[in-house]
Specification:
The chain is built from 4 helices and 45 strands. It is mainly β.
């Protein structure tokens, strides 16, 4: 099988390489003028040079009516200038109803409910990667790196200037993007890929300068051409971001005050590659984790909120081998206890000592990524009450985490990737290594895609083991009708969990998908799509079905831009679950099932909007089912103030799940579960650089066991009438974050955070909401007040400071 897969990769690579040819479609082009005078970024466009340069106009709709020319009343005109420091973009966005322009004020990288203008720049003109910069009608900034494979990554941030201004004819935008924020070749005459985008929010219409055909499954390759930029040199890209922060922590037991200081470094090694390093990192102000009552056999997966591990990490996400929350998470080893010993202090996390990453892509399309992080040795404190002694035992040794990626792009839309992850622990603790080879191949016209991978893991422990994971997928990616088919094989010993995350092994799965969509609006719909999908999974050892699903879903937007969706799912076969019993070789048989869901989301351009999503699942087993609903109203009081509330309720009746292993039997319970989640988010924006944000979440889930059952060897259950251990659950968690953020200079920020949180768990089921809530917050709250200051120093500006002094 390995040989066949390699042959497929090589043949596909050769086939696609042979298709390389010049684009047959004549692309739009624009010429930039060089300037010697200074441009003031004020949104006025009143310097005389603006009237002397070429204009990009005749925008075309991208959504919803793909290909329709923009109306005269909404015409858009864009011009580009440049000097030795950067490029300047000036745009006039006409609107015959300027009073209706939506302009909600938001913080950076949040579109909100506002009109927006953007420029997409590909300095290598290779159709592979855009640097995208957006300005909203309220003056807000957004920026991201975009690829066809990973989409838009808004965690990436650059330093650039912009100004928007509402006028009597519409609105204007003026931007300066320094060369340090871009990547381009060292050629004397530059040829860049470029496109401009305009969104008219109240009509949910998006226009581009260079037409982007929605029948083609690619956007970047359809950009226009920017000429005229000559004799520029990439600047030294060295940025220093020192920070200082302080934390006041208090609860019923103690109050502590801590202070931290550190430094982030960003250095452009050359035109293509950038080094990022954090020394003495501080992640104390990252978003809280939304913890749940987890009764399943697998750990809860959390989002990565730490900026260093989210910014510009598209290369490291290849193959889904990196789950960066492993770095600095809770210790992975549990000490051996003897006699009456107990752990008095088990650390909740491991300190990150430092981390670096190098990433970028050269003019030949070769992307290289290198990430390395080191965490410190961490001990648990163990008490022996018999002789009143204590000792320490290492639960996380000094550990090095490493990711290396080589990603070769070609034909502007295809790639072959090598990736390796490695975890090395000091001493006799386990080490791990995972290596993957991936390919993503597209025909020249982006009509068909062939993708796949083979990944091999090796664990070095008391018992070394190796495993592999391989997949292959073929898809048609253009037109009204699209489809895909594929499969996945994972061996029993495949394990990438030291630096990645993987829940299931030892299976073979097959899947397919077919969809129909309209490409232009009809009398009823602005958009409409119907999708069919199928999935079936077999255990490798027994060939039993351990997962199956067949479903149909519909997604649509009507003429008032309200979204309607729904679907049905059917599992026609019993599932043999080899994971829930938590013992190798055991399985539980789960019944056939069917279900459905509806979704409605009203137009966010309205001051009041509502999301709602009811769902249900029924099974072939009598009186075993589940249902739930989510409701999310939101209201925009003004361009500065908005509030959103979300309520989620889920109910499970007679769900069967693992409860205990008494040494003789694996005990399952038939149980009822209720889960309530209430959350509120709100913001008050003084301006686009100064914002208050509120985020509140209360989660409550309780479980009542109706009966206990022994799991039989054939996967069925026999009721156990003697087991009487209380295994009910009642879990509450509360989080509140109130933040103030002020971007007082480009890239420089003062942030103040007040946070309180609490969590309780017990075996007594309390169904009184107010009682649960009051018990949660009365005596269990932890309070944190923190202040953090980060200052962004650009080496090029620093040189000027010294020259002036």
């Amino acid at each position: 099988m390995h040989k066949n897969l390699i042959i497929i990769i090589l043949l596909s690579f050769t086939f696609l390489k042979s298709q390389a040819q010049n684009d047959s479609i004549q692309k739009k082009s624009l010429v930039a003028n060089k300037i010697n005078e200074s441009i003031i970024i004020d949104g006025e466009l009143n310097e005389s040079i603006w009237s002397e340069t070429q204009t990009a106009s005749n925008f075309v709709m991208f959504e919803p009516d793909n290909g329709r020319p923009i109306s005269e009343s909404k015409k858009t005109e864009v011009k580009i200038l440049y000097d030795n420091d950067g490029v300047y973009i000036g745009a006039k966005l006409y609107d015959d109803e300027p009073g209706k322009i939506l302009k909600e004020i938001t913080e950076r990288d949040d579109f909100g409910t506002t009109d927006a203008f953007g420029v997409f720049i590909n300095g290598l003109n290779d159709g592979q990667q855009d640097f995208r910069f957006f300005v909203t009608a309220a003056g807000g900034q957004l920026d991201c790196i975009a690829t066809e494979q990973t989409g838009e990554d808004f965690s990436w941030n650059a330093i650039w200037s912009s100004k928007a201004k509402i006028t009597d004819f519409g609105w204007t935008v003026e931007m300066k993007i320094p060369y340090a924020a871009l990547r381009f070749s060292n050629e004397t005459k530059q040829t860049w890929g470029i496109n401009f985008i305009r969104e008219i929010k109240r009509d949910r219409q998006i226009y581009t300068w260079s037409f982007v055909d929605s029948k083609i499954g690619a956007v970047i390759q359809q950009a226009g051409i920017l000429n005229g930029i000559e004799n520029i040199e990439p600047p030294t890209r060295l940025f220093l971001i020192p920070y200082a922060s302080s934390y006041l922590n208090t609860n019923n037991e103690e109050t502590t005050l801590t202070a931290k200081g550190g430094l982030d470094i960003k250095y452009g090694i050359n035109d293509a590659f950038t080094l990022d390093a954090i020394l003495v990192p501080d992640f104390g102000q990252t978003k809280f984790d939304e913890v749940i009552l987890n009764l399943g056999p697998f750990e809860q997966q959390f989002n990565e909120n730490r900026p260093f591990f989210t910014e510009g990490t598209d290369l490291f996400s290849k193959g889904n081998l990196l789950y960066s929350r492993r770095i600095g998470s809770a210790p992975g080893f549990y000490p051996t206890l003897t006699g009456n010993e107990y752990i008095s202090e088990y650390p909740a996390s491991v300190n990150l000592l430092n981390a670096i990453k190098i990433s970028g892509r050269n003019s030949d399309g070769l992307g290289i990524g290198f990430l390395n992080a080191i965490t410190e040795k961490t001990d648990a404190n163990i008490i022996n009450p018999d002789d009143n002694t204590s000792r320490k035992e290492t639960v996380s040794p000094l550990t090095n985490y490493n990711v290396t990626v080589f990603d070769q792009r070609f034909n502007k839309n295809s790639s072959v990737t090598f990736i390796n992850t490695n975890v090395t622990r000091n001493g006799s603790f386990r080490d791990a290594n995972v290596t993957g080879l991936l390919f993503d191949l597209n025909t020249k016209k982006n009509t068909y895609n062939l993708s796949g991978d083979i990944k091999m893991s090796s664990i070095y422990d008391f018992e070394n083991k190796s495993g592999y994971n391989t997949s292959l997928n073929f898809a048609e990616t253009s037109g009204k009708i699209r489809y895909s088919v594929g499969g996945n094989y994972v061996s029993k010993d495949y394990d990438n969990n030291d630096l990645g995350i993987n829940f299931q092994t030892n299976y073979t799965s097959l899947f397919s998908n077919a969809s129909y969509r309209i490409l232009n609006p009809t009398k009823v719909f602005n958009s409409f799509r119907i999708n069919y999908n199928s999935f079936i999974q077999f255990n490798n050892l027994t060939s039993k079905i351990q997962g199956n699903n067949f479903g149909v879903s519909v997604n649509s937007t009507n003429k008032k831009n309200h979204f309607f969706g729904g679907g049905i799912n059917y599992n026609p076969f019993e599932n043999y679950d080899y994971y829930e019993p938590r013992e190798d070789g055991k399985f539980a048989i789960y019944p056939k099932s069917y279900g459905g869901w509806l979704y409605f989301s009203s137009n966010y351009a309205n001051k009041f909007a509502l999301d709602t999503n009811p769902y249900f699942t029924n099974t072939s087993e009598t009186n075993r089912y589940s249902y739930g609903i989510s409701i999310g109203p939101r209201y925009r009081f003004s361009d500065k103030i908005s509030v959103q509330y979300n309520f989620n309720y889920g109910k499970q009746i007679n769900n069967a799940g693992f409860t205990d292993n008494d040494g003789t039997n694996i005990i399952f319970a038939k149980r009822d579960r209720d889960t309530y989640t209430n959350s509120i988010s709100g913001k008050y924006s003084i301006n686009s650089n100064m914002n208050f944000n509120l985020s509140v979440r209360h989660y409550w889930s309780f479980v009542e066991n109706n009966s206990f059952h022994n799991l039989n060897d054939d996967g069925t259950f026999t009721e156990n009438t003697t087991y009487n251990v209380n295994r009910n659950s009642n879990f509450n968690s509360w989080n509140l974050d109130l933040t103030y953020s002020w971007w007082f200079a480009p890239g420089s920020q003062v942030s103040v955070l007040y946070r309180n949180n609490a969590a309780t768990f017990d075996r007594t089921t309390n169904k009184d909401f107010s009682n649960n809530f009051s018990n949660l917050i009365s005596d269990n709250l932890n309070h944190i007040l923190s202040v953090s200051i980060r200052y962004y120093i650009d080496y090029n500006q620093g040189k000027n400071w010294f020259k002036k002094s």
